[in-house]
Prior knowledge:
Strand content: under 5%
Shape: globular
Low-confidence stretches: none
Amino acid sequence: METLVEGAVVEALRDGNGEATRLYVAACAERMAPLFVGLRADAPGREGDLDFYAESLRDLWYADRPLADGAERVRQLERFPELQPNEEGITDVVGTYSFFAALSLRYALLANSLGNAGDAVSCGHTALTAMGMLDQNVAGAGFLAEERRLQSLSLSADASGVWDASVGAGRERLRAVLGRLPR
């Protein structure tokens, strides 16, 4: 599969240590998180899913060690409606972006617990795909370029700076998606 992730980032993930990979996926998941939490916040019966998502995201930031229960978290996440097969596909804005956010978290959890660079690249690819779609739907947006920049930053900066940048980027993404919703 050809990936949207820049070659230098892919190489750094393959050659890097587990902690760098875990920081990278935590940052990717953080930037995507508002697209799940913010878009599903009012969905009836999803309180447990929202709590699980937020807890998993928080725990990903402990990048010095893999999650002990990473495989179980992946199994739980895979039961989310966003990740279930659907013959009709996803056709609405909320469904599309919450799917990408859930998929990003799935790959982040896999990369964190298994230390697999391929899962980390898939996490980054998922974020880039979603941002490319957002750029196509929001005039003058530069979300794809910003995601590429932040992915590189995630491999070369300290965790607190990466976290701050990721939180800010995630908020901007949510604002852009909310702007696409019918009023």
